[in-house]
Design brief:
Layout lengths: L14 H23 L6 H21 L3 H12 L10 H18 L3 H20 L9 E9 L9 H7 E12 L4 E10 L5 H11 L5 E5 L8
Antiparallel strand pairs: 1-3, 1-4, 2-3
Helix pairs in contact: 1-2, 1-4, 1-5, 2-4, 4-5
Length: about 220
């Protein structure tokens, strides 16, 4: 059974308990940052945020200390804060919420609970990150093809797409090179990723060896 290390008496906080909760919050913040950093490259600013979030949330919870009036005042103060950074991915939002939840636990004195949940959630995060959970079995791609202006782009590659893709959709057409060429943007889903080069070679034969660009879908970046 998890118990709080804080004194339940309202308006009182022992110095040693406050320091202990802060040290645990910082330690767990470093652990969360290390776990997230293990998945790949990330900015220093974001890593610092993950380290500091638990102790900052813990400080707010300790200051509120169950007082309704203080809670409303803190809520009003935080409502004035507006984030002007670029939108984060769903993974970044989840790990930020994770760090805040740890700060809530340490702020109420449940240090052992915070440590156990940090360990459990961290292990689950690493397992999901290193596994193929949630990945598409078929590879979705963005395909950009340049063709000469005299070619009819409406059905020029249909037979190739029928052979190599399970789904293809023409997204937009743009003129380029002073109107002497067209750029065709497709969303495609390959039947077999190993035949991507074979498909590109067939397209190059069809478009006169002009530029062909194939890459990962922009929507695969885990945004909400």
């Amino acid at each position: 059974m998890f118990t709080s290390v804080l004194n339940s008496a309202e308006g009182s906080l022992a110095i040693q308990n406050g320091v202990l909760c802060s040290l645990v919050s910082l330690t767990l913040g470093f652990l969360i940052a290390f776990i997230y950093g293990f998945q790949g490259a990330c900015s220093k600013n974001f890593m610092m945020t993950l380290v500091m979030l638990p102790v900052l949330v813990q400080m707010v919870i300790m200051l509120v200390n169950g007082n309704l009036g203080t809670s409303v005042a803190v809520l009003g103060a935080f409502s004035l804060v507006r984030f002007r950074s670029v939108p984060g991915t769903s993974k970044e939002m989840a790990v930020i919420f994770f760090a805040m939840a740890v700060g809530l636990a340490t702020g109420t004195g449940f240090l052992s609970f915070a440590a156990v949940m940090t360990f459990v959630v961290g292990i689950v995060f690493l397992v999901l990150e290193k596994s193929r959970f949630g990945e598409w079995r078929q590879e979705r791609k963005d395909l950009r093809i340049t063709i000469a202006e005299h070619l009819d782009y409406t059905e020029i590659f249909d037979d190739i797409f029928q052979k190599y893709t399970s789904k293809s959709c023409l997204q937009k057409v743009k003129t380029t090179n002073l109107g002497s060429m067209y750029e065709l943007d497709y969303h495609i889903t390959l039947k077999d990723i190993r035949k991507e080069k074979e498909m590109l070679d067939a397209i190059r034969c069809r478009n006169g060896n002009l530029t062909v660009i194939c890459g990962r879908r922009a929507t695969m970046q885990e945004e909400l």
